[in-house]
Amino acid sequence: MGTSRMFHIFVALGSAFMILLIIIYWDDVGASHLYLYTPVSPGPKVPHPPPQPRPHTTRTPSFLSDIDAFVNQFLEPGTGEPTDTVPVDSSSNQSEKSGERYIPRREWKIHLTPVAAELRERQEKRRRLLQELCANDSVVFPGKNRSFDDIPNKELDHLIVDDRHGIIYCYVPKVACSNWKRIMIVLSESLQQEGAPQRDPLAIPRDLVHNTSMHFTFNKFWKRYGKFAKHLMKVKLKKYTKFLFVRDPFVRLISAYRNKFEMRNEDFYRRFAQVMLRRYANQPTPPASVDEAFTLGVQPSFSHFIQYLLDPQTEKDMPFNEHWRQVYRLCHPCQIQYDFVGHLETAEEDAEHLLRLLRVDNVVEFPTSQRNLTASSWETDWFSTVPIQARRELYKLYEPDFRLFGYDRPESLLNE
Ligand SMILES: *[C@@H]1O[C@H](CO)[C@@H](O)[C@H](O)[C@H]1NC(C)=O
Ligand SMILES: *[C@@H]1O[C@H](CO)[C@@H](O)[C@H](O)[C@H]1NC(C)=O
Ligand SMILES: *[C@@H]1O[C@H](CO)[C@@H](O)[C@H](O)[C@H]1NC(C)=O
Ligand SMILES: *[C@@H]1O[C@H](CO)[C@@H](O)[C@H](O)[C@H]1NC(C)=O
Ligand SMILES: *[C@@H]1O[C@H](CO)[C@@H](O)[C@H](O)[C@H]1NC(C)=O
């Protein structure tokens, strides 16, 4: 009697142990799409924007989205509406919800429907444009002809690698780069929150998002892999999905100016604004600090900023700061064959397409931006104080970016 009972207990324990082993192994294999998420304490929760109707006109034929909706109604409690916003805490009141964990809106959703043809064609067109211009010898710009091996290591510092999902992201400052960096941190699980990886992109503190220790970039390969570094980079470039986001180059410059010189930024004031004031604004001794400058109302104008960019002395002192350095110099689009080229002008659609392409649309969601974005329509106003000759020189300086990424020459600004 006693031995039989003991036997049963052993069998039960053995089975439990086996199941445990299977779970652990499963986790190890990294079945990222089927992850059984362990509850993560939410950390500082950022209120989600209120659910908004999607601004873009619906591109997917409605019967296709109906299929998604049909499937998803079995997967989650809800209406099954495809753009349905699942647990968004619109009350943004932490006290009562502090026990809840972050759930991306699209978690558990499965897309059976293909990505809209229009979006796929858009990517095809952008990729083809890059290939054509890179192969066209009459299109010349610095560094175009060199091979990947000839790119100095320090110029590879904008390529962020996620080995878990096989993704390489070239970040371009002033082009939604904080949001994509947040997503890369979540995907690569490089930030731990109370022993578990941080899963909410918006809960990552701002200073950490831009801290280089959070990101595994190509320029760090030498330290980790030594002489195999370049070889490994090339293997990863071949196998991984590579993407970047760009925007109209002139609008990017306006955005950089607004962000770095219209707002109080001690670092940028000392490194750049003082230089501009001295050189172009007859201020041999500019105010010592940004606070003093703002109090006195002394700021470099947008026109001074453009003068600074055009001044040959600027790049003799040091290469352009990343916020205004050309995308072709940050991301090497002729050496790296990008699989996906997003445009900020179509960021929402492109982000959704990209996350599906990367097969992580069930893990993260692109945070919708609610900030005061620099609009293309402001361009004429901003450039009204910049002399036409300077505008043309500026266009020359950024022409490769305009052409490579399919932005039209801004004729109205350049002709008179
Ligand atoms: C929660 O919301 C109520 C009103 O909805 C408000 O009075 C209270 O201060 C909020 N608490 C916190 C911690 O935000
Ligand atoms: C190369 O670019 C020039 C313009 O810069 C264009 O006229 C020419 O047609 C292009 N060649 C090819 C083969 O696309
Ligand atoms: C780049 O290579 C092409 C031919 O391969 C050549 O015609 C062109 O002069 C080269 N340009 C530079 C800047 O070296
Ligand atoms: C970046 O993070 C590391 C550790 O997480 C910290 O030691 C370092 O001071 C941070 N750097 C900056 C510039 O905040
Ligand atoms: C956005 O910024 C522009 C210029 O900086 C300003 O005129 C406008 O009032 C701002 N809009 C909002 C909603 O803050």
Cross-sheet strand order for the largest sheet: 1-2-5-6
Large-scale geometry: globular
- pLDDT averaged residue by residue: 80
The number of distinct β-strands equals: 6
Query: What is the number of helical segments per DSSP (H or I, 4+ residues)?
Result: 18
Give the SSE order as H and E letters.
HHHHEEHEEHHHEHHHHHHEHHHH
Termini Cα gap? 102 Å
Notes on the protein architecture:
Its EC number is 2.8.2.-. Keywords: Carbohydrate metabolism, Glycoprotein, Golgi apparatus, Membrane, Signal-anchor, Transferase, Transmembrane, Transmembrane helix. It is found in: Golgi apparatus membrane. One of its GO terms (cellular component) is Golgi membrane. 45% of the residues lie in helices and 5% in strands. It is mainly α. Among the domains are: 1-41 and 61-84 and 97-108, no CATH class; 135-251 and 320-414, no CATH class. A hairpin with a 2-residue loop joins strand 3 (192-193) and strand 4 (196-197). The longest helix has 28 residues, at 2-29. It is globular. It starts with a helix and ends with a helix. Residues 24-62 and 75-104 have low confidence and may be disordered. One 2-acetamido-2-deoxy-beta-D-glucopyranose binds at residues 132, 136, 138-139.
